[in-house]
Amino acid sequence: MGCTRQQLNEFFDDLLTPQRFNDYCPNGLQVEGAFDLQHLVTGVTASQALIEAARDRGADAILVHHGYFWRSESPCITGMKATRLRALMTDDINLFAYHLPLDCHPVHGNNAALGRLMGIEAPEPLDPEDPGTPVFWGRLEESVTVQGLADRLGVALDRTPLVIGEGDVRSVAWCTGAGQGYIDLAAEAGTDVYVTGEVSEQTVHVARERGIAFIGAGHHATERYGVQAVGSLAARALGLSHEFIDIDNPA
Ligand SMILES: [Zn+2]
């Protein structure tokens, strides 16, 4: 049982089609480790805590949503980044990272999963012409109050969301993670409420002044689902064992 590094890489690429995205980081194999793979660990962020937990479970590959080498960061391998890379390389652990492709997959992505948690069975991209804008939308079967929708998310995600606005909502736009900058897009589309992971000071003013309700449900909390779905699929297809490790993050 098990597979090669290249087989796992091809499985992820075939499913997630990273070539369709102009992303802020490289998608795919970011750090090369062992050739033969048995155990895959998935997690939200390739933090030191995740690497150490994966090593303790005997992982030879890690799949994350937040990897390394972001466009905005220094390319130098120093400090925290050097410590993380050393830990991966010392134990021959492969690091696979997919960012926008994991947000946007229509069935297994973070956004599709968050839509289902809210009770929306057929989420659609808000702008189908632009695969790089990870905002989805859909309609709830019945209208609920903003607080009712926030409570539903609070139970599903196991944390208390931040809520701006009140009244009934039915059409919902959402973007997992740090999607607060897309609230204008959601308001222009005429949706009743916008749901994302993070909030900025200005988000509250935009919500109040444009008359759209807002729910901030947690960056980490809303992005736990894509890696789990894709990791399970890969493990089943390629004969790997798989586990998701949640290194909790209140942000
Ligand atoms: Zn994120």
Structure, described:
- The chain is of the alpha/beta class.
- The protein folds into 2 domains: 3-103 and 223-244, NIF3 (NGG1p interacting factor 3)-like (Udp-n-acetylmuramoylalanyl-d-glutamate--2,6- Diaminopimelate Ligase, Chain: A, domain 1); 104-222, 3-Layer(aba) Sandwich (Udp-n-acetylmuramoylalanyl-d-glutamate--2,6- Diaminopimelate Ligase, Chain: A, domain 1).
- It has helices spanning 5-16, 48-56, 79-90, 100-104, 110-118, 146-157, 183-188, 201-210, 219-222, 225-238, and strands spanning 3-4, 28-31, 36-37, 39-45, 61-66, 94-97, 124-125, 136-145, 162-164, 168-175, 193-196, 213-216, 241-244.
- The strands form 3 sheets. A 6-stranded mixed sheet has the order 7-8-10-11-12-9, sandwiched between helices. Strands 2-6-5-4-13 form a 5-stranded mixed sheet, sandwiched between helices. Strands 1-3 form a two-stranded antiparallel sheet.
- Helix 2 (48-56) runs parallel beside helix 3.
- The mean pLDDT is 96.
- For the biggest β-sheet, the strand order reads 7-8-10-11-12-9
CATH topology of the largest domain: Udp-n-acetylmuramoylalanyl-d-glutamate--2,6- Diaminopimelate Ligase, Chain: A, domain 1
Overall 3D shape? elongated
Total helices: the number is 10
Supply Rg: 19 Å
Please state roughly what percent of the residues sit in beta strands, choosing from under 5%, 5-15%, 15-25%, 25-35%, 35-45% or over 45%: 15-25%
Q: Which H/E pattern describes the elements?
A: EHEEEHEHEHHEEHEEHEHEHHE
Low-confidence stretches: none
**Average pLDDT reading:** 96
Number of discrete domains: 2
- Classify the secondary structure makeup into a structural class: alpha/beta
User: Mind telling me the CATH superfamily name of the largest domain?
Assistant: NIF3 (NGG1p interacting factor 3)-like
Q: Helix content range of the residues, please?
A: 25-40%
CA distance, first residue to last residue: 38 Å
Largest β sheet strand count, sense and barrel closure:
6 strands, mixed
